[in-house]
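Module 6 notes. Inverse folding takes a fixed backbone as the condition and produces residue identities as the prediction. Think of it as a translation problem where the source language is geometry and the target language is the twenty amino acids. Below is one complete input and output pair. Work through it position by position during the lab.
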């Protein structure tokens, strides 16, 4: 009944207006799949950051967020790029498996935990920047661009001058919708990669497993022109559904930066609680 009424009203509106005023039905459909959740904004405000949580319900094909406009703005991917970087490394043979060892050269590194030999799995979870810079250099500009194009990952700007930094600084960009689109295709085995690579990556990305859910993903943190930007992306597999998420936040003034590392995850978990997805 409601559908018939909507169509009747739409026909009347179209007949009384110029062709230029005809609504874009694809946009109407897209908007109908986006639900604003004010509680997400309350969560973000309570921890003194700006930004958006974007959660995609795969079963219902619905997006939930506090700020869809923020979610459309491209940002540097930072260490969330370790997901496609690892995929490309495995596909090109730069890494043979998640046990591939990256030798420490003995040079001092920004984090003490990076000052050791690390497997690919450890480098991923410890977010070892120098390890993945070596990976990118070994992949090379030509292969990197070819695989990024085939994977459909954001808008990365890669050349010989930035091959080991393009995800941390410069003009490379990806937004929250694009992060979710990429992860959705990965989760649904729709990326043009081997089954072996997919299996390794799905094992590599696991963060936590409980009786209630399995969480997989990656955080990221970039600093550009003195501005901090933080990511948490991934997917949460519950008993009867899977939710893909991308959280992006920036600290407000007088924010305690010691808290920034954990805030990205805490904001996301609290959003899942507000949707009654987890306890």
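Target side of the pair, the amino acids:
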């Amino acid at each position: 009944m409601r559908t018939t009424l909507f169509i009747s009203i739409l026909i009347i509106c179209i007949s009384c207006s110029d062709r230029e005023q005809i609504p874009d039905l694809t946009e109407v459909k897209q908007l109908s799949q986006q639900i604003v959740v004010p509680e997400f904004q309350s969560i973000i405000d309570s921890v003194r950051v700006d930004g958006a949580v974007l959660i995609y319900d795969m079963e219902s094909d619905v997006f939930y967020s506090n700020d869809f406009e923020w979610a459309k703005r491209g940002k540097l991917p930072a260490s969330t790029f370790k997901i496609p970087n690892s995929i490309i490394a495995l596909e090109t043979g730069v890494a043979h498996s998640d046990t591939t060892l990256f030798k420490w050269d003995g040079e001092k590194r920004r984090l003490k935990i990076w000052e050791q030999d690390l497997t690919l799995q450890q480098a991923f979870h410890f977010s070892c920047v120098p390890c993945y810079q070596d990976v990118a250099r070994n992949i090379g500009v030509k292969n990197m661009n070819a695989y990024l194009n085939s994977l459909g990952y954001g808008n990365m700007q890669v050349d010989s001058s930035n091959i080991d930094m393009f995800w941390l600084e410069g003009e490379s960009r990806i937004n929250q919708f694009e992060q979710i689109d990429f992860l959705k295709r990965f989760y649904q085995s729709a990326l043009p990669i081997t089954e072996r690579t997919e299996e390794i990556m799905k094992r590599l990305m696991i963060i936590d497993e409980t009786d209630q859910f399995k969480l997989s993903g990656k955080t990221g943190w970039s600093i550009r022109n003195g501005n901090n930007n933080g990511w948490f992306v991934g997917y949460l597999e519950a008993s009867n559904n899977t939710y893909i998420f991308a959280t992006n936040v920036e600290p407000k003034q007088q924010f305690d930066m010691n808290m920034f590392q954990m805030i990205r995850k805490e904001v996301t978990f609290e959003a899942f609680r507000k949707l009654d997805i987890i306890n």
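Reference fact for the lab report: The CA atoms of residues 87 and 197 lie 7 Å apart.
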